[in-house]
């Protein structure tokens, strides 16, 4: 920003205003990201203990892997959607659930790259129903108070998209035998 300021020859007053606006805009996302990364690190590193117990993430992942088996490939994208819905972004969804998805892939023998790709796609799809994105859209379009309707209407294409992506992934793995890392 300082380089672009020098090139565009903005006054110090305009530069200060731009820095303040940027800081105000980035602050909520930065705060959410700090807590999401912290939670993710606690969950991943809880296995570093003297008791020899596995991490929380691994225990949850192995439990779900045992319950779903190879059928988990049909659920992975929905975990990404849930993460984006709860956290508000694909990035935070990936931070929170990427390790979880990786551990499930390990436990089930499903290809890690495909499961992590489904996580990422799910996080992107989840932005369609993410509360703060819907509020921003409703504010921009002047339809405040209709956020619930927008989320309900977006659930249909989000669900269809998630099912199609899951089926394509299942075909890639089980029919075409694509076994990436």
UniProtKB/TrEMBL annotation:
Q: What subcellular compartments does it reside in?
A: Cell membrane
Source superkingdom = Archaea
InterPro entries named among the record's database cross-references = Lactate_perm (IPR003804)
Main location (coarse class): membrane
- What does the UniProt keyword field contain? Cell membrane, Membrane, Transmembrane, Transmembrane helix, Transport
TM segment ranges: 21-44, 64-87, 155-176
> What does the record say about its membrane topology?
Multi-pass membrane protein
Q: Name one GO molecular function term.
A: solute:proton symporter activity
Q: What cellular component terms from Gene Ontology apply here?
A: plasma membrane
Q: Which PANTHER family match?
A: GLYCOLATE PERMEASE GLCA-RELATED (PTHR30003:SF0), L-LACTATE PERMEASE (PTHR30003)
Under what name is this protein listed? L-lactate permease (LctP)
What organism is this sequence from? Answer: Archaeoglobus fulgidus
């Amino acid at each position: 920003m300082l380089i672009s300021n020098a090139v565009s020859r903005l006054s110090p007053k305009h530069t200060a205003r731009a820095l303040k606006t940027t800081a105000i805009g980035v602050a909520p996302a930065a705060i959410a990201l700090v807590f999401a990364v912290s939670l993710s690190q606690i969950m991943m590193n809880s296995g570093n203990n003297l008791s020899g117990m596995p991490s929380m993430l691994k225990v949850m992942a192995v439990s779900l892997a045992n319950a779903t088996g190879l059928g988990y490939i049909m659920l992975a994208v929905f975990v990404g959607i849930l993460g984006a819905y709860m956290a508000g972004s694909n990035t935070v969804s990936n931070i929170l659930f990427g390790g979880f998805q990786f551990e499930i892939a390990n436990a089930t023998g499903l290809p890690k790259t495909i499961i992590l790709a489904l996580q990422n796609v799910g996080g992107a799809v989840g932005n369609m129903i993410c509360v703060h994105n819907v509020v921003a859209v409703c504010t921009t379009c002047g339809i405040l108070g209709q956020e619930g309707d927008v989320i309900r209407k977006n659930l249909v294409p989000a669900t269809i998209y998630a099912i199609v992506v899951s089926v394509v992934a299942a075909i890639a793995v089980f029919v075409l035998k694509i076994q990436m890392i």
